[in-house]
Every structure is written in structure tokens, then in C-alpha cells.
UniProtKB/TrEMBL annotation:
Composition bias type Low complexity, residue spans: 143-154
Entry-linked Pfam families: PP2C
Xref: PROSITE patterns: PPM_1, PPM_2
Keyword Manganese: yes
Chemical reaction(s) catalysed: O-phospho-L-threonyl-[protein] + H2O = L-threonyl-[protein] + phosphate; O-phospho-L-seryl-[protein] + H2O = L-seryl-[protein] + phosphate
UniProt organism field: Linum trigynum
GO CC annotations on file: cytoplasm; nucleus
EC numbers: 3.1.3.16
Family to which the UniProt record says this protein belongs: Belongs to the PP2C family.
Catalytic EC class: hydrolase
Cofactor(s) listed in the protein's UniProt record: Mg(2+); Mn(2+)
Name this protein carries in UniProt: protein-serine/threonine phosphatase
Ranges of biased composition (kind: Pro residues): 45-58
Length: 475
């Protein structure tokens, strides 16, 4: 019994490589049994990395001339000797030899009566331009990452802001806000220079601290309730509490968290502030490309990133799952969405008539602990929106970002953008005070976003095409 040939001894058509003296005779016999169109000559050679087919199964019979063959050839005609070649006369065999010799030297195409693709349904997206496409229609992997790294390393934000507030349908205005585009200059104004502070006031010299970056800014929104006292106090003192903290600027997160708690405790001790007054607090501290968002309450910070809205804070409502669990764990209750039936927020500064004596121990259901979100600004980050709950009650974050971006592209004025948001919220019947701050990170307006037109090319499987033809024929 002849042994099975090794896989590497098979050529691309599945036939064993033979000695050169038997090639001519064997090729004639093999090509005579191929279906029509099989092995047609082509002008290109097969790719060198085309995988070899597996060796044929079963035993390999011997040909009449004594050489080994394969059982891969099939035909609709009769066979003899178990090899699968049709019975042909020597004359016909000789006539076919010349026509088949050239065909055998190239890779054969599949038979015409066999589908070349089965169960295939695909979608191909073709971009209009191929200027950014590399070999094989793919983007060069190194070019985009390298350019992004260079852009990010060279990006330096430049801060400018605008704000707008309106009382809305309420009787009193209880919102407050702060905008500091140049924090370095603001610190010099508060504490003076290092030289003058050291020579004139030894007590104030420790307050001045050099910032890690010359480009720094601070913004905040304070939505008061039960009067404007707590909101006004937080606006006047929050930034100073941050700058005076011993952890600033090396430990910015700890400094901001400590400032929130300090402001909350100061509201309890301040004799000029009504103890029933409270406020939410949302701040944004930016040092260079690092931005830290701190929130306690239901105001919201939203980043505009090339037209997409990225929420950087979470609304602290009593019905929020995490807030509800914390409130109930500390002995609080929620009635119809209100904390202890009195307050519609789960975190706030002040409100010491609710916190009571346990407030300073951090065990009150109404917490002043802020949630922090830190990120690094990139060139894709275009602007930041700070808004009280009166805006977000009637408008989604994405809607606000879309409006601001459209306005900036028209007039590049963040103050007019803030006004447009407030006016739109009033038209949507907002029933609260409205305060909006828009912070831009560049002096230029946002660039126009060009979405490439995409051509969609679809294909259908052979079976699907046959089924479709059948349906159409029956109609």
C-alpha cells in the first residue's frame, strides 16, 4: 500500500509533486478530468502566502504508469481504476495535452457551477478621500498617535468666560456665582506680592503660594435656598479657603474637599447668616491642563468636547440610588423625593436646622462632602458649562452643548452663550432661578466639524439572490 504524501509535497491544486519525467504524462491525464473553466490561465502568479490545502483523505492509488496520484478530482463522467479520470481515447487525450499544459502552470479558478461565496452579507464603508489612508486602505497607525501626542503636549488652555443670571418666575434671586479667569492675578490682588507680604504683614505672607502653572482659573455656582445668605457666604469665601489650605497646591483634591467642609462649618458658626439658609456648591479649579470639578448638590458641570456633551458631575438628588442608601444608612428618610420631607437635594452647605449637632461629625444625612472629578484638558475640549438645576430641569446636557457651540461659531462670545441658554430655559417654562457660566479654553471659536460622506456598498449571498429571484418570479 503506498504511503500518504506529506502536506508540503502537494501543490496548490492538491496534487502531489512528481518526478519531472512523469510530469507531462500525469498533467495530461489530470487536466482531462477537470471541469470546464478549471485551471484557466491567468497573467498573475498566485500569492506566495496562499495556504496549502490539507492532504487528501483515503488511500492514494497508483496510476497506470506506476506514479502516485490523488483522489481530489471529481467529474460527472464514468471513472476507472478508482482515480476519477474519465475514459478517453489516446487521440483525445493527446489533443487536450497542448491546451491544458499552460492552464496547469497557474492557479486554477473554481468551477463555474460552484458558488465562490456562501452565506455572506457585508457592508463596506468607503471614504470620499484617501489622503489619510495608508497601504491597504488603513490609516497609518503611527501618524495619528504621534500627531495627537504632539498636539496634546503643545496645547496650553487660554481661559475666558461669560455668565448670565435671571430670577425667573421666583420672587427672590438666591443664586450666586464667581468667575476668575486669571487666578494668578487674583491671588496677587488678595494677598499682594511675596515681597510686600513678607515685609509689611508677616501673618499674611504664608497665605501666598506660587501656582504650579501660570495659566490658572476658578469658577463656581452656588444655588441658594432658604435665603441668599449661604450662597453669598460661599461665593465670597470658597476660593480663599482653598488657597489657604495647607494641602494646596500639592494636594489639590484634599484642599478643595477641606474647603467645602470648612465653609459648611463656618456657616454654622457665622452669626450674620441665617442657620436655615443653605446652598449647593459647584466649582471648577483649573491649573494648567488639569481641571478639578467639585460638586455638592444638583448643579451640573458639562464639558463640550468637539460637539459632544461630557457630564463631569452627578446631580445629588435624594432619589438617586447611592444617595438614598447613604441617607437611609444615616437615619434619614425620603418623602416624595424630599430629604426628611424638607429639601430636594441630598448634599448642600449650611441648612444646619436639618443637620443639627451631628452635622459637624459628618454623620448627618445631609452631607457637605463634595464629589470630585479630575481630568486633563486636550485640544478637543472646547468649553465648559456650569449651570444650576433650573437649567437642567428643562434641558439636556447635549442640547446645551449644541446650542453653545453653535453660538460660539457665530459670535465667539461666552456671555451671549450663557444668556441664550437662560432665555431658552425660560421659554421652556423653567420654574427656578437660572444661572449659567460658560468657560472657553481657547480664544478662537470652535472649528467646523466636517463629517466625511460615506458610500455604503452592500453585497448579497448567492442563496439570498436565488431566494430573491424566486420571490420576484412568483409575484
Amino acid at each position: 500500500m503506498p504511503s500518504r504524501g506529506h502536506p508540503k509535497d502537494f501543490d496548490l491544486l492538491g496534487f502531489t509533486k512528481l518526478e519531472s519525467k512523469n510530469n507531462s504524462s500525469l498533467k495530461n491525464k489530470i487536466m482531462a478530468c477537470l471541469p470546464v473553466g478549471m485551471g484557466q490561465a491567468t497573467t498573475s502568479s498566485p500569492p506566495p502566502d496562499l495556504p496549502l490545502p490539507p492532504p487528501p483523505s483515503g488511500q492514494i492509488p497508483r496510476l497506470p504508469d506506476g506514479s502516485k496520484g490523488t483522489d481530489q478530482c471529481s467529474t460527472s463522467g464514468s471513472t476507472k481504476g478508482g482515480f476519477g479520470s474519465p475514459e478517453t481515447s489516446p487521440e483525445a487525450e493527446k489533443g487536450d495535452t497542448l491546451g491544458n499544459m499552460n492552464q496547469f502552470s497557474s492557479v486554477g479558478k473554481p468551477p463555474r457551477n460552484v458558488s465562490a461565496m456562501r452565506h455572506c452579507s457585508s457592508s463596506v464603508f468607503l471614504p470620499d478621500s484617501e489622503s489619510d489612508m495608508g497601504m491597504g486602505g488603513l490609516k497609518s497607525p503611527g501618524s495619528s498617535s504621534t500627531s495627537n501626542d504632539k498636539t496634546q503636549s503643545s496645547f496650553e488652555p487660554w481661559f475666558r468666560s461669560g455668565s448670565w443670571s435671571e430670577k425667573g418666575p421666583k420672587q427672590f434671586m438666591e443664586d450666586e456665582f464667581i468667575c476668575v479667569d486669571d487666578l494668578q492675578q487674583h491671588i496677587h490682588h488678595l494677598f499682594g506680592s511675596t515681597t510686600s507680604a513678607a515685609s509689611n504683614d508677616s501673618d499674611s505672607s504664608h497665605k501666598y503660594k506660587e501656582l504650579p502653572s501660570p495659566s490658572a482659573a476658578f469658577y463656581g455656582i452656588f444655588d441658594g435656598h432658604g435665603g441668599v445668605d449661604a450662597a453669598s457666604f460661599a461665593r465670597k469665601n470658597m476660593l480663599e479657603f482653598i488657597l489657604e489650605d495647607s494641602q494646596f497646591p500639592s494636594g489639590t483634591k484634599k484642599a478643595v474637599r477641606n474647603a467645602f467642609v470648612k465653609a459648611d462649618h463656618a456657616l454654622a458658626d457665622a452669626k450674620t447668616v441665617d442657620t436655615s439658609s443653605g446652598t449647593t456648591a459647584l466649582t471648577a479649579l483649573i491649573l494648567g491642563r488639569r481641571m478639578l470639578i467639585a460638586n455638592a448638590g444638583d448643579s451640573r458641570a458639562v464639558l463640550g468636547k468637539r460637539g459632544r456633551a461630557i457630564e463631569l458631575s452627578k446631580d445629588h438628588k435624594p432619589n438617586c440610588t447611592s444617595e438614598r442608601q447613604r441617607i437611609e444608612r444615616l437615619g434619614g428618610v425620603i418623602y416624595d423625593g424630599y430629604l426628611n420631607g424638607q429639601l430636594s437635594v441630598a448634599r448642600a452647605l449650611g441648612d444646619w436646622h436639618i443637620k443639627g449637632a451631628s452635622g459637624k461629625g459628618g454623620k448627618s444625612p445631609l452631607s457637605a462632602e463634595p464629589e470630585l472629578e479630575e481630568m486633563e484638558l486636550t485640544e478637543e475640549d472646547e468649553f465648559l458649562i456650569l449651570g444650576c438645576d433650573g437649567l437642567w430641569d428643562v434641558m439636556s446636557s447635549q442640547c446645551a452643548v449644541t446650542m453653545v457651540r453653535k453660538e460660539l461659531m457665530q459670535h465667539n462670545d461666552p456671555a451671549r452663550c450663557s444668556k441664550a441658554l437662560v432665555k431658552e430655559a425660560l421659554q421652556r417654562n423653567s420654574c427656578d432661578n437660572l444661572t449659567v457660566v460658560v468657560v472657553c479654553f481657547s480664544s478662537d471659536p470652535p472649528p467646523k466639524i466636517e463629517i466625511p460622506r460615506i458610500h455604503r456598498r452592500r453585497s448579497i449571498s448567492a442563496e439570498g439572490l436565488d431566494l430573491l429571484k424566486g420571490v420576484l418570479n412568483n409575484v
